[in-house]
UniProtKB/TrEMBL annotation:
It comes from Mustela putorius furo. This is Olfactory receptor. GO terms for cellular component: plasma membrane. It comes from the Eukaryota. The gene is LOC101685715. Residues 39-285 form the G-protein coupled receptors family 1 profile domain.
Amino acid sequence: MWQNISVTEFILLGLAQEPMKKKMVFVIFSIFYVGTMIGNLLIIVTIKFSRTLQSPMYYFLFYLSLADSCFSTTTAPRLIVDSLSAQRTISYNECMTQVFALHLFGCMEIFVLILMAVDRYVAICKPLHYSTIMRRQVCTTLIILAWIGSFIHSIAQIILALRMPFCGPNLIDHYCCDLQPLLELACMDKYMINLLMVSNSGAICSSSFVILMISYIVILHSLRNHSAEGRKKALSTCTSHIIVVILFFGPCIFIYTRPPTTFPMDKMVTVFYTIGTPFLNPIIYTLRNAEVKNAMRKLWYIKITTESKR
């Protein structure tokens, strides 16, 4: 019989229990996190200081990289530290903060991906009106609305989490705090909370994915009227965006649009979209984008040249 006490801390089981596997987790995810931060910070600095990357597409890419950096930081550092810790505890307040941050930056990434799709739609389908529609003031307003929408979503999620009573046990079979693993420990009827979670996070993920796929189908269909060179450039950009969308939304839909049950692969699926996707995004956007690569070369060439003259 569980004691009816208030839980003040949780124990995160993490990804591995054996000492050797824990060391592997430490090494692998340290590399992933450092790579994520370096890659996204390079994009942020390049877009910020490059004169050639001032279009709305790169304005949104700046915020995608910012969201990626913050999104990965909500889970990766604790996973890395916990992999070498004997006592992997997280306080109730820290757990709730992680839930809030996870959904804030995750939702921001979703909204920025939608804005990038809108930008590509206007640029390819309405090129003559592009400069009028996608003005800097409009882009700034859209980003502000994205932050507000993400904040509202996170508030809704944290309210659900705070309403869950925990009377024991406090062992979370995961490496981070989120509504699904916390729901397993809640001393209450889980049906209504899960229904609210699916109607919030699940609906946002599913509807956003459908909207994005439809928008890119329309964009790709409209490319038949463009020149061969214009088609090639637009296809390269859109392909990068589609890859990012599939990599991010596939795992999200799997986690947030199902009954309140857990599966053995849940932790690895969560790893993929919270740590893997932020790591892959800079690679996808730089390797497939000549403008970003050229801007990086010029920016760092100027930096090195300036330093050598001092």
